[in-house]
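Appendix B: complex inputs.
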Amino acid sequence: MRRIALISTGGTIEKTYDALRGVLENTVSVLDVMLGSLELRGVAIDRVRLMNKDSLEMSAEDHTRIAETVGNVSQARDGVVVVHGTDRLAVSGERCVELLGTPRVPVVFTGAMRPYELRSTDALQNLTEALLAVQLLAPGVYVAMHNTVLAFPGVTKDPALGTFVKRG
Amino acid sequence: MRRIALISTGGTIEKTYDALRGVLENTVSVLDVMLGSLELRGVAIDRVRLMNKDSLEMSAEDHTRIAETVGNVSQARDGVVVVHGTDRLAVSGERCVELLGTPRVPVVFTGAMRPYELRSTDALQNLTEALLAVQLLAPGVYVAMHNTVLAFPGVTKDPALGTFVKRG
Amino acid sequence: MRRIALISTGGTIEKTYDALRGVLENTVSVLDVMLGSLELRGVAIDRVRLMNKDSLEMSAEDHTRIAETVGNVSQARDGVVVVHGTDRLAVSGERCVELLGTPRVPVVFTGAMRPYELRSTDALQNLTEALLAVQLLAPGVYVAMHNTVLAFPGVTKDPALGTFVKRG
Amino acid sequence: MRRIALISTGGTIEKTYDALRGVLENTVSVLDVMLGSLELRGVAIDRVRLMNKDSLEMSAEDHTRIAETVGNVSQARDGVVVVHGTDRLAVSGERCVELLGTPRVPVVFTGAMRPYELRSTDALQNLTEALLAVQLLAPGVYVAMHNTVLAFPGVTKDPALGTFVKRG
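Resulting structure:
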């Protein structure tokens, strides 16, 4: 059985709705609910709750801390998945490459443009893709989202398309 | 076949998510999608798209316009349902009683604490209740929501409970 | 606070899917899951788990037992809702009228054409309607479904339409 | 842009509910609805509607026809996904290996234990996995389902687990 570490850092994918205040925000993690709705055979997932932030509010220290955590948990695992806000996901991905070079196992970032809490969401698709890609890819740092896998370095978010692309 | 007028004014129930900006807002009406997901037999629904506002942004003129529209459409219908933001729903309800007294047909306001776009929402429940209550009640002005029907005047939103109560 | 008895007898509305055998069947009750997804204020619901049958398999004794149970639980409640398979729902409704005449509180039958377990279902709509109608109607025996309330006796299922109509 | 052929053959994943007869059956394809709910960037999908059968009803000719179609469509594509009933999926997979050896592109079978039409289903997860795996794997014949990818020959369905395993 493969052991996968799943690091949660927040982002749109995990936002929930506060009905009394009428806003979407990062307060509780819905990753466990998402995982509970998937059929995951032959894999053991270790949850690492690192932070729960809109990535627009991440500092340089946050990105470094994410990369260091990736390096630490990768030692005893077969792969690492990181759930992250898309706005600064690429910053954390590049920081992983700077700090870790080629990690000893595949590291796959993912996120979503529409929260899991929405009736129509890309959250489950992207999480499904990350959890499969981490088993099929060679060691390296990647983003998996919208049926596309891209390798760092050189990945950026296209804000108009709402997805990731390779920098030209 | 009964003819029901369905007046939409906006509110949380109709908010949709802008994925690029990351906010819930009143831009398009999702009432037709909601209606399409219900089985409505023996009733003809006339949609009246009056406005699409967060009710916190409604002016005194807006409340009066809603009450006047209720009065107008009630002339040739068997009932009127009004979809409205909950924050100022009671203001429009009281305005209806001031302007119309007891209308010639039942008038039922409804709304939601959680948008229809959310996976977990009270929007369909409340719309279902309003569309049934308008067929069973005597002429008057009401709010139907959360399995409760209350008659105006004297109704207020309890912001802590997130529902409507009779003023003590 | 109003006290409502909710009698479950099975039917399509409660069918669940056995993935290994590939069939929809009445084995466990999903009514509590449905109730958990609704916002029910000001009402206390007492669950009465009477049977869990496809109504095509109900005997004359089953229909009588349902009517007798309705009579018993109506003594200490403000209303009774009965969840029932649609194929023989009208038999139980007529049996209630035969045994109870006009009961002391409203008795509302409901069911569904598509199980709650389906992505697209009329189960929540019909349950919502029954739980509201039982608070608004005069004492009597009714079916509430598809935005329509009909009073027994004289109600029948139209198998081609998949809904209930008054017998001509 | 990668070109993927998506061959549909039926199976539980595509079953829809006939409300009047109360049964789940293979009559219309819901694959297009599933595809419409996913965000698929950088891939062009060619739909090949081959048959719509419960795989328990497939004949030896059906399995051969599926394998031959896989061989044909793989000529001008970067990958092939086959949606198939799980009961006989392994028969079609083995037939592909017999007829095609190692095909020139990856061929990924998938299916579901619970139809897409159910509120709780593995259909979208499995389709998402197949559409990603076909882009990451080396040429060969595989099944992707429940977060696991297995290579033919030597794959079998474990009927008690409701998933696929390598034959020991």
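Chain B has a mean pLDDT of 96.
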